[in-house]
Structures are given as structure tokens and as C-alpha cells.
Design goal:
six-stranded mixed sheet; 29% strand; alpha/beta; Nitrilase/N-carbamoyl-D-aminoacid amidohydrolase; 24% helix
């Protein structure tokens, strides 16, 4: 594909998983009707962001992958002829869980899954309580509309993850996300954090010569105001689209995948990489 149209559903969530699924499926239908070919859902879209607390009852939200949600979304993808990238809470085995994204192709086929590699453990984001770090490595999925590299939320702070996924042939990097501002946080800090979040992913675009799409949730859940602000960059890091912060939004944006060759030719970072000098990156810290 030379050009693709991505659907960006930025939604708020409620406690009932069925309501969230129904709302998301309706959003997918609207985006497809407006021409979307690839639709990326926000992180853990079936529920409230439950990682703000450590509560064993929340493990009941998990499901197998493939499983009920991928079956449902696969049927929808086939009906509409769209690719769906769906972030889900995976139950792999008794007592073993992952933060996982599944990819359904435009014919409904389940192409596989990516398990979140970097797991945070911060106030309001107690993900290590729930999720085992991913063990499938980094992933690129060949879909009807291009090669999609999938990473998840906290992965977005790590240039190594974006680089490796890009080197695997991704035409587009996507980040299902759930990130927000704490209730008592000063507005200046809020803005600094948002700009840091967007800036690091713009850097992934520039360094790798690929577009980047981040799809965040919005709305207030407990003491967290999810900051929305979902955005799309081109391969120069230019922001082509940015959603509002605390409003729901549905948008379809076009990406010209042919431009990556232009950007990589004029700024040949991949050509000039000194791969012989990078062994120290495998160390935790260099004393």
C-alpha cells in the first residue's frame, strides 16, 4: 500500500466491559464508514484502567488470546474490511497474565499478538502486580494495508523498542496507551509531562523514518485524568493530527507510506548506524 487511512478512536471507559466493547465496536463502525482501513484501539479498552490499585479481583477481567474478544473483533474486521489492533488483558495460564495487543486482519484473520515488554510500577500504575513482561520479542504484523509494528504504552519511552521494531520492517509504529495526569498535579507539570510523552515518540519517527500513532484514552477514572491527546506523526516527526485532551474523539487520517523512503534517503540514519559500537547498550549501566 502507498497510502493508508488510520482510524483513531479516543474514548472514555466505564466499569462494565460489555458497555466498553459495545461502544468501541460502534466507534469502529463509524471510523470504517469514514474510510478508515487500520483502526487502533486504546490500551485495555474493555475496562477502566484497573492498574491504579492492587486488587486480586481485577484478574477476573482477563481472557485468553485468541479468545472471546478476538473472535468478536475478528468478525467485525471481516464485515467491515478493516484491520483492528486491539489491546487486551491476557490470561495465559493460571496465575500468568500479560498486557497484550492482538492484530486482526481485514479478512478477520487473527495474525498474532504482541506482549508488552516494559512494565511500569509507579503510583497509579501498578502494572507489575498484574502483568508478566512480554516474552514474544518485538513484533511486526503484515496486514492487508501494510506492516504494522505494535508497541504498548510504557514501551513508548524506550528508543530501543522503536528501533528494533522499525528494523523489522514496520511501515507504521502504533502505541495503544493509557496515560494521564494525577488529580492534584500542577498544570505546569501536566503540560511538561504531555509534551515529554509526545516528544519522545516524535523522536522515534525522526530516528527511524516511520510514522508513529499513539492512541490514548480520555476521561477521569478515580484520581487520574487521562490526558487523551492521541496523535499521529509523519516520518519527520511532524504532528499531522492531535486529538483534544479530555474529550472523546473519532478521527480518520491518511498516511503516505512512500515518504519513509524519501526521509530515510535524505536523512540516512539507518545507513550511518555504527552497529559495531553498540554492544554497551546491553548493559544495565556502564560504571
Amino acid at each position: 500500500m502507498d497510502k493508508i487511512r488510520v482510524g483513531i478512536p479516543q474514548l472514555s471507559c466505564v466499569a462494565d466491559p460489555q458497555q466498553n466493547m459495545d461502544k468501541t465496536m460502534e466507534a469502529v463502525r463509524k471510523l470504517a464508514a469514514n474510510g478508515a482501513q487500520v483502526i487502533v484501539l486504546q490500551e485495555l479498552f474493555r475496562s477502566l484502567y484497573f492498574c491504579d490499585v492492587e486488587d486480586y479481583q481485577n484478574f477476573s477481567l482477563a481472557e485468553s488470546i485468541p479468545g472471546p474478544s478476538t473472535d468478536l473483533l475478528g468478525s467485525l474486521a471481516a464485515e467491515l474490511g478493516v484491520v483492528i489492533v486491539a489491546s487486551l488483558f491476557e490470561k495465559r495460564a493460571e496465575g500468568l497474565y500479560h498486557n497484550t495487543t492482538a492484530v486482526l486482519d481485514a479478512d478477520g484473520a487473527y495474525l498474532g499478538k504482541y506482549r508488552k515488554m516494559h512494565i511500569p510500577d509507579d503510583p497509579g500504575y501498578y502494572e507489575k502486580f498484574y502483568f508478566t513482561p512480554g516474552d514474544l520479542g518485538y513484533k511486526v504484523f503484515s496486514t492487508r494495508f501494510g506492516k504494522i509494528g505494535v508497541l504498548i504504552c510504557w514501551d513508548q519511552w524506550y528508543p530501543e523498542a522503536a528501533r528494533i521494531t522499525s528494523l523489522m520492517g514496520a511501515d507504521l509504529l502504533v502505541y495503544p496507551t493509557a496515560i494521564g495526569w494525577a488529580e492534584q498535579q500542577p498544570e505546569e507539570v501536566n503540560q511538561d509531562q504531555y509534551h515529554a510523552w509526545q516528544s519522545v515518540m516524535k523522536g522515534h519517527s525522526v530516528a527511524n523514518g516511520v510514522p508513529v500513532l499513539a492512541v490514548n484514552r480520555t476521561g477521569t477514572e478515580g484520581e487520574m485524568h487521562f490526558w487523551g491527546g492521541s496523535f499521529l506523526t509523519n516520518a519527520y516527526g511532524k504532528v499531522l493530527f492531535q486529538a483534544p485532551h479530555q474529550e472523546e474523539s473519532l478521527s480518520v487520517q491518511e498516511i503516505d507510506l512512500r515518504l519513509s523512503d524519501y526521509y530515510r534517503t535524505h536523512w540516512p540514519f539507518l545507513r550511518d548506524r555504527r552497529i559495531d559500537s553498540y554492544a554497551p547498550i546491553e548493559k544495565r549501566f556502564i560504571d
